[in-house]
Amino acid sequence: MTVNEVASVLDAEIVTAGDLNAEVKTACGSDMMSDVLAFVKDQSVLLTGLNNPQVVRTAEMMDMRCIIFVRGKEPTEEVVALAKQKEITILKTQHRLFTACGLLYSHGLSGGDRS
Amino acid sequence: MSNTLSFDYIVPGDDFTRAGEASSDVKHKLKKIGYDSDAIRRVAIAMYEGEINMVIHAGGGKVHVEISPEKIEMVLSDNGPGIEDVALAMREGYSTAPDKVRALGFGAGMGLPNMKKSTDVMEISTKVGVGTTLHMTVYAKR
């Protein structure tokens, strides 16, 4: 699905838009960026409740297209500014992490390969 | 004329929000050159983990990067506390990071193992009370 469709499935607000037509197939949900860096391979969506600029840095290093803040977390100005600069889409949803992941999974996104 | 580009960065120790700027810059440069994308990803991960480590543990440090068509070499050096037990530090899940670092999403004890996994060569020289230097190499083609 596209980033735009991800937003609609999660009833999410688009905080800042990168390429909304980018095609995404896999996602990962974590508040621990160390684990994202160590375990993620080709996931293009990151769902998290962690709210600091290193979330955007991590997504950038992993070539991710979209960050979704769950539980209605309001990304800080620094986070939004960095995401804009890196052309990464930021979405905000009221859903909790488990529910948001479940919704995306049931709409066809997968967790990607285990390695 | 050599085919090597080299860059130097200072990683500020007091500002967690700026950690990753050097890695981001290197990633950007490699993309511009048109370097192999898998190699770029591995360099970005290893260097970013290294930057985070320097900010968490060592009060910042320096990064020297050399890019040639065959490989990318990174030297990360700091004047931090050094690593007492390198074998232990290399173990997945072992971390000495304080709780405030975990609250920021790091300190899972995956940094050094992930740096080793992401690079083709990694050498650590460290002395307690003096500092740590990491040499990492990523080949353009694995």
Automatic annotation (TrEMBL), chain A:
Which Pfam families does the record cross-reference, listed alphabetically?
DRTGG (PF07085)
Q: Which Gene3D superfamilies match?
A: HprK N-terminal domain-like
Q: List the protein's name.
A: DRTGG domain protein
The record's annotation in InterPro entries points to: DRTGG (IPR010766), Ser_kin/Pase_Hpr-like_N_sf (IPR028979)
Q: Which residues form a coiled coil?
A: none
Species of the source: Caproiciproducens galactitolivorans
Q: Which SUPFAM superfamilies does this entry report, sorted A to Z?
A: HprK N-terminal domain-like
DRTGG domain segment(s): 5-101
From TrEMBL, chain B:
> Where on the tree of life does the source sit, at the highest rank?
Bacteria
Q: Which GO molecular function, any one, fits this protein according to its record?
A: protein serine/threonine kinase activity
**Domain Histidine kinase/HSP90-like ATPase, which positions?**
22-137
State the InterPro entries in the record. Answer: HATPase_C_sf (IPR036890), HATPase_dom (IPR003594)
Alphabetical UniProt keywords: Kinase, Transferase
Query: Is the Transferase keyword given for this protein?
Result: yes
Task: Report the SUPFAM superfamilies cross-referenced here.
Answer: ATPase domain of HSP90 chaperone/DNA topoisomerase II/histidine kinase
Query: What single Pfam family name could you report for this chain, choosing any that match?
Result: HATPase_c_2
* EC number(s) reported in the record: 2.7.11.1
Q: What class of enzyme is it?
A: transferase
For this entry, the protein name equals Serine/threonine-protein kinase RsbT
